[in-house]
């Protein structure tokens, strides 16, 4: 597959597995009082979140606003509906695909043994956690594990990724569930 095709498949995987949220996701960022939105948890005032809002009619009034302001004004449901509209979904798909093409695919291409299409897509779906950590995780294991085998790569992420991501034991079960859901999705692909 071309880099563009891989980026599109990774974006579809992130969307279809819901690992980063749904189209209408609107919550408060853990990093500050600003909205975290959509299928890629775009966030930040004057950042990626505001960029997303520029592409959706009716969302311009939410640009630069805090999460608290949106909640206090009672406009959260309106924002959710706009993000979930046909235009909102298309904008999110396009931006996420571009993110995958510019960020995730180049980093994963640095892992020389990651040449199986399904394994590449599987790893790409994990990249929103940190594309740098995913790349290093696989680079450090590519000589000792067959990362061309989807079951092997799934078990690596299920059993060890939470450790290198340094999120703590309390997230081990959540990461294992994410690994299994990602495996089921990617295994069903006809690529």
Output the radius of gyration. 17 Å
N/C terminus separation: 9 Å
What structural category do the secondary elements indicate?
Answer: mainly alpha
Number of helices: 9
Instruction: Provide the β-strand percentage band.
Output: under 5%
Q: What can you tell me about this protein's structure?
A:
- It is a single chain.
- The chain has two domains: 21-98; 110-191, no CATH class.
- The chain is built from nine helices and three strands, in the order H-E-E-E-H-H-H-H-H-H-H-H.
- With 191 residues, it is mainly alpha-helical.
List keywords for this structure.
single chain, 191 residues, mainly alpha, 2 domains, three-stranded antiparallel β-sheet, 9 helices, 3 strands
Give a brief rundown of this model.
This protein has 191 residues and is mostly helical. It has helices at residues 3-17, 48-54, 67-72, 76-84, 86-108, 117-126, 131-139, 150-164, 172-187, and strands at residues 26-28, 35-37, 42-43.
Tell me the layout of helices and strands:
Blueprint: H1 3-17, E1 26-28, E2 35-37, E3 42-43, H2 48-54, H3 67-72, H4 76-84, H5 86-108, H6 117-126, H7 131-139, H8 150-164, H9 172-187
Antiparallel strand pairs: 1-2, 2-3
Helix pairs in contact: 1-5, 1-6, 5-7, 6-9, 8-9
